[in-house]
Specification:
There is one protein chain. Helices cover 30% and strands 27% of the residues. It has a six-stranded mixed beta sheet with strand order 5-10-12-13-14-11. Helix 3 links the parallel strand 3 and strand 4. Helix 2 packs parallel to helix 3. The longest helix is centred in the N-terminal third of the chain and has 11 residues. It is globular. The protein starts with 5 loop residues before the first helix and ends in a 12-residue tail after the last strand. Bound molecules: zinc ion. Zinc ion binds next to helix 11.
Length: 332
């Protein structure tokens, strides 16, 4: 059997959810450990807690693949006074690597967090709720120093950025500007030297998801379905509007920023988590907001991670954590 390294797993997961699709505030990627380390077993989880590291040790898993990054805002010291540092110290002591696949997995349609929720609810005709403009990066090489007017012409386009280094220019541009950028470069004797193109088309990348139930349902019946399928103890929701439900917008985790998109696509329900009191008023009798809980909305991501890894690798164990890492308890 060939040796599988942490890097092999990273490469495979990056194919499903390219790291460049993570949000700017995120910290996706290899957070602890060495990419060249041989993988003996993988443990998948939503949150890397100390107990999850203990579980990895117990089951001889030396790679933890976690949805949420345990190191998020940066670490100033590695002393055991805080749970994040204790978790990292324990992982390092036991040669356990930690890889996070967070908003990049939220932002892909295929094999992503939101598709899994949609599958559980039986939604059809699923598409991205707020598609992202896919950016491309190309490196151009010039035979002779290009003119200043070229840079001005390029950057006059929205979202086009030029990083110039003598005869080498790196240009970052939205995929929609591809033809314009190439034409300008050609007329100025620029040759494309290397190009990193994004792997996925724009319609496959972005925030949230919208899809339809196969048949319209009553609102209360849909809430029952939602509660059962998502294993949520309690749903916090806005006023029911007394109309049939068929189009559903959703976003695993904290998706409140997508409410206007959910209304714009004509969804009757918007399912997400982490809603605050005043934000519920924004439903404004146009949609029903249903907050099912952050952990509840993403818990099936753990099995998704196991499947995403197992589809490629079969010569070591890939496990789901058996621990519930939800920090929130309900006294019902
Ligand atoms: Zn989350």
């Amino acid at each position: 059997m060939p040796t599988i390294t942490v890097q092999d797993i990273i490469d495979h997961l990056a194919h499903i959810a390219p790291p460049q699709y993570q949000e700017s505030y995120d910290n996706t990627g290899l957070l602890v450990g060495h990419a060249k380390q041989e993988v003996r077993g993988v443990l998948c989880c939503l949150d890397t807690t100390e107990a999850v590291v203990d579980e990895a040790i117990e089951h001889n898993c030396n790679l933890i693949v976690s949805h949420h990054p345990i190191i998020f805002k940066g670490l100033k010291r590695l002393t055991p006074t805080h749970y994040v540092a204790r978790t990292v110290i324990k992982a390092i002591k036991h040669d356990i690597a930690i890889y996070a696949i967070h908003t990049n997995l939220d932002n892909v349609l295929q094999q992503g967090v939101n598709q899994r929720i949609a599958q559980r609810l039986g939604l059809i005709n699923c598409r991205i709720l707020a598609p992202k403009q896919v950016m491309k990066v190309a490196t151009f090489h010039f035979q002779a120093p290009p003119s200043d007017s070229l840079r001005e012409a390029l950057t006059a386009q929205a979202d086009v950025h030029v990083y110039a280094d003598g005869l080498h220019w790196q240009v970052r541009y939205p995929s929609g500007s591809e033809n314009h950028v190439r034409t300008l470069m050609r007329t100025h004797n620029g040759q494309i030297w290397s190009q990193q193109t994004d792997a996925l088309p724009a319609t496959q990348v972005g925030s949230g998801l919208v899809g339809e139930l196969p048949e319209p349902m009553r609102e209360s019946d849909f809430l029952d379905l939602l509660k059962g399928k998502m294993h949520t103890g309690c749903i916090r929701h806005t006023t029911l509007l007394g109309r049939p439900v068929q189009r559903i917008a959703l976003c695993g985790g904290a998706g409140g920023f997508l409410l206007s998109h959910a209304i714009a696509v004509g969804a009757q329900f918007f399912i997400t988590a982490d809603y605050k009191y005043h934000e519920f008023f924004d439903a404004d009798n146009q949609i029903v907001i249903a907050d099912i809980g952050h952990y509840e909305s993403e818990q099936f991501t753990i099995a998704l991670l196991v499947e995403n890894i197992s589809q490629k690798f079969s010569n070591f164990a890939v496990r789901s954590t058996e621990l519930c890492t939800n920090p929130i308890n309900y006294w019902c």
